[in-house]
Amino acid sequence: MNSRLLYASLALGLSTVFASAQNSAPVQSRVTTQVLGRADRLLIRLLGYPELSGEYRLGPEGDVTIAVIGRVNVSGLDAASLEKLLSDRITEITGKTGEATVEVIAYKPVFVTGLVENSGAVPWQPGLTVLQAVALAGGLVQPSSKLNGETASVERRDADYRKLLDDQIRSVATIARLKSERARTPTISVPDTLTTLAGKKTAEDLIQREQLVLNSRMGSLDAQLASNARARTAASEELNRLAEQRVLLDGQIEQQRKTAAEMTDLQKRGVVRAETVREAAFRLSDIEEKRTNTLVAIARVQSLIFSLESGETVIKSERSSGLDLDISRLEQKIFQNSVELAKWRSDSAKQSEFMIRYQIVRNGSVFVPDAKYYSELLPKDVLVVGDDGSSVPSVVGEK
Fold first, then answer.
1. Quick check: keyword Signal in the entry (predicted)?
2. pTM for the complete prediction?
3. What is the pLDDT of residues 384-398, one digit of tens each?
4. Which helix (H) or strand (E) holds 370?
5. At what angle do helices 274-352 and 200-268 cross, to 10 degrees?
6. Cα distance between residue 222 and residue 56, in whole Å
7. CA dihedral 293, 294, 298, 303 (to 10 degrees)
8. CA-CA distances (angstroms) from residue 236 to 301, 303, 371?
9. Alpha helices for 269-366 (secondary structure H)
10. Phi, psi torsion values for 72, nearest 5 degrees
């Protein structure tokens, strides 16, 4: 069906189809886990209809308008549901199997206001926390209140805490990789501690990067051991060849000694000349020299095999010792960081009672009146950063 016929068919069936769809669709809150209600721009592709495919911006009510197809509210839909809805509608209207794909290009931003350097919108990504949003807004500004007679440098304290927390997060991720390597476990599990410190998505991303390091290090060790094994195999084959050669030379020496003795006896009886006896003795000496060289080669190969076997032990031992040392150092560091973080949180909790207060406004209401630095935000949230005496109206815009 060409584009003109498609437009005509859609125009005829549009009102009936989408009236039914809108009436039957359940109404869902914007604070659900449905990601499309949080999106700002979508990329919609309709297979076979490039003129309808492209980037679409969601309206204030969570609707998207597709040329000819019309307006579709996506507030209560996820990507898969919208894909099915569009595919079914194209199929119903055209009589041909429709196929649609939906991707989120960008999410609605989060707005940060109050005691921050740069109030305004900051980009949202899954897992965005209060602390990260404040950092994107330029950090906290120094309040005018005093703490214990001294002006509180909140921004500096916040930066120190972030640095300590980031160091702890990296240390926990690294030690997870080191312990997996020591146990020869090919896959690193995400530690619960890391998820608690960094959030699920960040923890998974960190472990994924550590997994690449683990794969590289284990691959390097396996390559070393494989190279060592190949060298031992080649040396063992050479040793077997030399052993067979020695047996052959032993037989030749025994035979040549008999021949030399017979030549000497025949010379005494005047049957052969002295020159013949000397030739027999020379051949015997030549074979004995070959046997001596073979014995030397055997000793050299045996020494090489011993060295290779010891080398494998050394490779494993050095790697294991290095891992044990690194793990021990990191365990001490993690413990020290944990003590400092606990102290910082304790002090911060006492100070935050009358210093810094985070409030999350969602859908016009104060959704979280006393949010924590690790509280997660959603698109369109308004994060209000103030001191203990500050507050926001129960409904945004209320006078």
1. yes
2. 0.44
3. 988 765 555 444 444
4. strand 365-371
5. 170
6. 51
7. 10
8. 8, 11, 69
9. 274-352
10. -130, 125
